[in-house]
């Protein structure tokens, strides 16, 4: 990894007997888009507050752009742009007036205020709504305006807390694309907290899986999947024309093929997991047995599977700890399903 821009060591925050953040070691490199992923109550917001120097850690330390965030919160504020999950604007002012106000607050020279505000609105794709009142904006537009508000301060790092909450699917796609563009065009380091697995997967180069105040894993999605599914890294889904009448014979024969570890049959779908990619052997096997094969698809492990697997492992390790197991899982999926 390149030079770390955000670094935490043993970062801990306790509220009474509750460890909201427990001994967090995080390292985010320059120009990365890092996804902090976890269910409600996992400790994401508390971590962000400590990164910004807005709340003091009980133990451990945070460094952002080389600065200790607890000791130098004002200097950190100059380097880091923070967008909370809901950004407030003056509803009766236009987007341009809102941004000009923010530009002035941030000390932009008066002669540059209007131009700078306009540049930012173009940057976030709001050029068509410059003269519209912020109060008439959709949630997605407000988030873009929020991003312009952050960018006008010319930060090196931006921290986005659940930025796509409540935006419709098309708006989410556009917003994520905007984040990617900003990262590429300006080399901004971005930390994004979310519980939307699919969204995080689309934009983040690395993710941290955060549950019950603890970071269970961090890394690229492929690396995490490789570690978790190392016993069966290849999975093939074969669709047959007609449902297979199960008698166990097909499964037994498939398990004789080299490296095959698991076979699951459901109707006309057969899922085969193994140590190596033997797709041609599997296709030959089915054709040789007289099956009509309608489709063959290699399965890649996404964040969904990774997340589930970490939960499973976490559940096993914490059977006696109700808070970090079932409750978290339920609240996560409850929230996940709703949106
Ligand atoms: N000021 C506080 N006083 C007491 N407990 C708190 C405080 N702030 C947070 N907590 C608790 O710390 C834990 C972590 O909360 P946090 O808000 O950081 O989680 P989160 O991952 O951001 O979840 P969400 O997405 O729901 O905001 C929760 O159990 C929460 O109730």
Automatic annotation (TrEMBL):
Q: Does the keyword NAD apply?
A: no
Question: What domain of life does the UniProt record list for this protein's source?
Answer: Bacteria
Q: Name one GO molecular function term.
A: ATP binding
Any Pfam family matching the protein: ABC_tran
| UniProt entry keywords in alphabetical sequence | ATP-binding, Nucleotide-binding, Transport
Q: Which residues form the ABC transporter domain?
A: 6-237
- InterPro entries according to UniProt: AAA+_ATPase, ABC_transporter-like_ATP-bd, P-loop_NTPase
Report the protein name in the record.
ABC transporter ATP-binding protein
Per the UniProt record, the source organism is: Chitinophaga lutea
